[in-house]
Design brief:
The complex is a heterotrimer. By secondary structure, chain B is of the alpha+beta class. Chain B is 20% helix and 34% strand. Chain B folds into two domains: 36 residues; 96 residues, Rieske [2Fe-2S] iron-sulphur domain (Rieske Iron-sulfur Protein, 3-layer Sandwich). In chain B, the strands form two sheets. In chain B, strands 1-10-9-4-3-2 form a six-stranded antiparallel β-sheet, with no helix packed on it. Chain B has a four-stranded antiparallel β-sheet with strand order 5-6-7-8, with no helix packed on it. Among the domains of chain C are: 47 residues, no CATH class; 92 residues. The mean pLDDT of chain C is 84. Classes of the chains: A mainly alpha, B alpha+beta, C mainly alpha.
């Protein structure tokens, strides 16, 4: 075996200057990582793992999925009931999309807390925020594809919100829907975006993002200065040390994914019926905070407020001038971060409860459009 | 056996290597079984196979269940017809009368002709029908 | 030729041509004959405006006699005009019949011409024409007089939805019915019956109304022997199976009023399985027939219970998240079996009922087996999950051990 390996190496060595690569490669693998490296620093690789999982399960689903109004629902039904292990891939893909949004968000949160977005890594952060937004677009476009009632009406609501943007709203809405209403044209467009445009876009941005991370190294806790950063002199290596940690988280995440697929499978529900609107149609959970916030403002102001959030996120490294990275030394930033996360949770919860009737501690409570509880009439 | 004990270090190494291999195999095997087509279905997802051409004589019939609903298959000289077997009056399952070439409802004597149109009796509408294709001696109904 | 002369030569034929349009007689149809009756009887004319007779240009004189072309009242009603005034019942029948029984006259309208002939055979007709009894219904009592509408018009008093109330005008009048020794509760009974509820509540026009069983123009109460044929017009299978039963012979002898004995006539209720306990004893004292009845009742009850249980099972499986189209289809077949049992029981043959029951049971077993299989698959998945987690925990332990070994002594968190 080792003889064979030696011969392969010789073959490549004679044609490509492998030695030139050996040095930088070993440096990348073995250079010391900053001392504060923790379990939270595995979130980035987990995002990558989930993306790869989505691509692979997505390719498998593509074998049997048909992107037309007459066939989409039936093809997903076929995958879930007839294709061998089809149910597993559909559930892993569906749960994977939800987990990916959570994990990418947590990775973003970790980067925020450790101040890693500051100089010289502003670009890495910008690309990262773009990746997060593209993940949300992945979710939005993929959600329509099973063509069930949930998909159809959530997409109708979602594109209506897009239509509320001033001046270009109607144009945007028609462009997204491929017509006046959600239909076969919408499936085609969303399918193309979800299956070709987004995967390659994300792939390239991830490649650049990873290159930058590797090239600049992981940020330390030292304050960001105009001078060149001092890399850590000692610490654990990326390979195999940190990767072993990532391996542990990978297996646990895989376990969670499969457990969710088996114990909490997503239903297929009923085929989309443009004539029957189910009661209380809402977008998927990751859009609920935005959806709910829009209710408090008149149309134009609401769009402005909600549109501000991703913009602020992108330019944050340029707004936050403090050189400090350690969270305890940046009370304002951390406070803002906590506020944002809390408001996401609160508005998300309100959005979830709104327009529904639930039993709380034995009493029936009706929640109005703002999520405020009332005694039933 | 030469009696050498495997050191703890090697043991963990073996678990890791074996585990990784097992994980890869665990990914690959179901994927391959998923890719192998499930046979015995119609040429497209819309058409369901309901029988063979030679099991129904001319002016004969067959009742099948498709997507939870009863379908009546009738063979006329010019081809196959597939009707919903649910009477449009009060929902009883209809039957084919090969002698009279009519479809009868046993509940209130509703009668439909071989095209599904109401001849007499209480049914208010004709029987809904479905497209039938015969390919290679097999009968397929499009729902 | 001068210019003015040329103009004149061209213009003249043009004007002659135009003149044809000014002197055309008015519209293609003939002018209607004058009808001076409406000058005094305007309100009746309004009433008759939408009627089928007015639409077909049947004039007042065709029913009332008289001369509508005379605008003088005396002249219009002069003796020679055949003026009838308000016709009495017998005259009504003769007057209506003079057109509606005339085949050549009615030919182009495409409606039947046997109403008069049938009426003469009916109880109404016989009472009126043979005994001179004017208490009965004649043409105008049911169809109206001036505002006659086609039967298919929802406003017609003889439209299926309105017919029972029209008959009830007399047949629910207790004083009138008592005078003729007839029951006056038919409408009330009918309203509470299966047919009445289907007609009035569900607006099912195909259901039996008064005329369906009694006939319309030839109205008679169906005699004992005729009930079966009457009910059997729609309930074909029930009648067919009844003829195979031991009661059929009795019916021929007129000793058993087939349907009515168990189901009633006006107050027809949906047949209840308890009838086997209450109805048979009316004639049978021996145990054997009673036992047979209970056996049949048991078959039906059994099949219905199986259907209910299996429906519940399928519903539960669908809630658990399984796809149950195939099972739903098998349920349909079971339902058909149960529905078929209802007419079949009229054969009073326990063997035949058991055959159907077996079919229903087979369906139930099939559904149960399929759902059991699906539940077993899910159980297998959960067991595999446990195995997978054991593997994962082993891997995590191994990785953690290796991590600690590799980072021993290094500066780490």
């Amino acid at each position: 075996m080792s003889n064979f390996k030696a011969r392969v190496r010789e073959w490549f060595d004679g044609r490509f200057e492998i030695d030139k690569l050996k040095g930088p490669l070993e440096h990348q693998l073995h250079k010391p990582l900053p001392g504060h490296i923790s379990w939270f620093h595995t979130l980035g690789s987990m995002s990558l793992f989930l993306f790869v999982s989505q691509v692979l399960t997505g390719i498998l689903l593509l074998i049997y999925y048909r992107p037309t109004v007459s066939d989409a629902f039936e093809s997903v039904h076929y995958i879930m009931s007839t294709a061998t292990m089809g149910w597993l891939y559909r559930q892993v893909h569906a749960w994977g999309s939800n987990l990916m949004i959570i994990v990418v968000f947590l990775h973003m949160l970790r980067t925020f807390v450790t101040g890693s977005y500051k100089r010289p890594r502003e670009l890495t952060w910008v690309l990262g925020v773009l990746l997060f937004l593209l993940t949300l677009v992945f979710g939005f476009t993929g959600y329509l594809l099973p063509w069930n009632q949930l998909a159809y009406w959530a997409t109708t609501v979602g594109t209506e919100v897009a239509g509320a943007v001033p001046w270009i709203g109607e144009f945007l809405k028609t462009l997204m829907r491929g017509g006046k209403a959600v239909g076969g044209e919408t499936i085609s467009r969303f399918f193309v975006i979800h299956v070709i445009i987004l995967p390659w876009t994300v792939f390239f941005i991830v490649a650049v993002h990873l290159f930058l991370v590797r090239y600049q190294g992981i940020a330390t806790m030292q304050p960001a200065t105009k001078l060149k950063e001092e890399p850590p002199k000692e610490g654990i290596r990326f390979f195999p040390d940190h990767m072993l940690k990532e391996g542990i988280v990978f297996y646990l995440l895989l376990g969670v994914l499969i457990t969710l697929a088996v114990l909490a499978p997503f239903e297929l529900g009923e085929k989309a019926d443009p004539l029957v609107t189910p009661h209380g149609v809402k977008p998927e959970w990751y859009f609920l905070p935005m959806y709910h916030v829009l209710k408090y403002f008149p149309k134009l102001l609401g769009i402005f407020v909600v549109g501000l959030a991703p913009l602020l996120l992108i330019v944050w490294p340029f707004l936050d001038r403090s050189p400090e990275r350690h969270p305890l030394k940046r009370p304002v930033s951390i406070a803002i971060g906590v506020l944002v996360v809390l408001s996401l949770l609160v508005f998300g919860m309100l959005g979830y409860l709104s327009e529904s009737t639930r039993t709380v501690f034995g009493r029936t409570v009706q929640f109005d459009i703002y999520g405020m509880p009332h005694a039933p009439r | 056996m030469n009696g050498k004990k495997i050191s703890r270090r090697d043991f963990v190494g073996w678990i890791l290597r074996g585990g990784l291999l097992a994980t890869l195999a665990g990914f690959l095997a179901p994927a391959l079984s998923y890719l192998w087509p499930v046979m015995g279905r119609g040429p497209s997802l819309e058409m369901k196979e309901v029988g063979r051409e030679d099991e129904i004589p001319v002016w004969g019939s067959k009742k099948v269940i498709l997507a939870g609903s009863a379908i009546l298959l009738v063979r006329a000289p010019d081809g196959f017809r597939a009707f919903s077997a649910i009477c449009t009056h009060l929902g009883c399952i209809v039957e084919w009368d090969g002698g009279k070439h009519e479809i009868l409802c046993p509940c209130h004597a509703g009668i439909f002709d071989a095209e599904g149109r109401v001849v007499t009796g209480p049914p208010p509408r004709a029987l809904p029908f479905y497209k039938v294709n015969v390919i290679d001696g097999r009968i397929y109904v499009k729902l | 030729m001068a210019l003015s002369q040329r103009r004149g030569i061209i213009a003249a034929p043009f004007f002659i041509f135009l003149s044809f349009f000014f002197f055309q007689p008015a519209a293609a149809s003939e002018a209607p004959a004058p009808n001076f009756c409406v000058d005094c009887h305007g309100d009746i004319a309004d009433e008759a405006a939408g009627s089928i007779h007015t639409r077909q240009a049947v004039s007042c004189s065709q029913c009332h006699g008289g001369d509508p072309t005379k605008d003088d009242m005396e002249a219009a009603k002069a003796p020679g005009t055949g003026f009838l005034g308000r016709p009495d019942k017998k005259q009504v029948v003769e007057t209506c019949g003079s057109c509606h029984a005339d085949i050549e006259r009615m030919n182009f309208y495409g409606i039947r011409t046997d109403q008069l002939a049938r009426y003469k055979t009916s109880h109404h007709g016989k009472a009126l024409l043979e005994k001179g009894n004017t208490d009965v219904a004649a043409c105008t009592d049911c169809h109206g007089s001036h505002h006659v509408l086609p039967v298919a018009d929802p406003n017609s008093p003889v439209y299926p939805l309105n017919l029972p109330k029209t008959c009830a005008r007399c047949h629910s009048d207790q004083a009138l019915m008592d005078a003729h020794n007839l029951p006056s509760d038919a409408l009330k009974k009918y309203e509470s019956s299966v047919h009445g509820r289907a007609l009035f509540e569900k607006k099912d026009l195909s259901v039996a109304n008064c005329a369906s069983c009694h006939g319309s123009h030839g109205a008679v109460p169906p005699g004992v022997k005729d009930v079966a044929t009457t009910c059997g017009k729609c309930h074909v299978n029930e009648r067919k199976y009844f003829l195979e039963s031991p009661h059929a012979e009795l019916e021929k002898q007129g000793r058993f009023s087939e349907c009515v004995s168990c189901h009633g006539n006006h107050a027809v209720e949906p047949a209840d399985i308890r009838l086997f306990q209450t109805a048979c004893v009316k004639c049978h004292a021996q145990t054997a027939p009673l036992e047979l009845g209970l056996e049949i009742a048991r078959s039906i009850g059994d099949a219905e219970e199986q259907l209910a249980k299996t429906s519940q099972l399928v519903k539960q499986a669908s809630i658990e998240g399984f796809f149950v189209e195939e099972e739903g289809g098998l349920l349909e077949e079971m339902k058909t079996g149960v529905v078929e049992m209802k007419p079949l029981q009229h054969t009073l043959s326990s063997a035949k009922m058991e055959e159907l029951n077996t079919r229903v049971t087979a369906g139930a077993r099939s559904v149960e087996a399929k759902i059991r299989e699906k539940r077993r698959n899910v159980l297998w998945r959960k067991q595999a999950l446990v195995a997978i987690w054991i593997f994962i925990l082993v891997m995590v332990a191994a990785l953690w051990t290796q991590y600690n070994r590799v980072t021993a002594g290094k500066h780490k968190r």
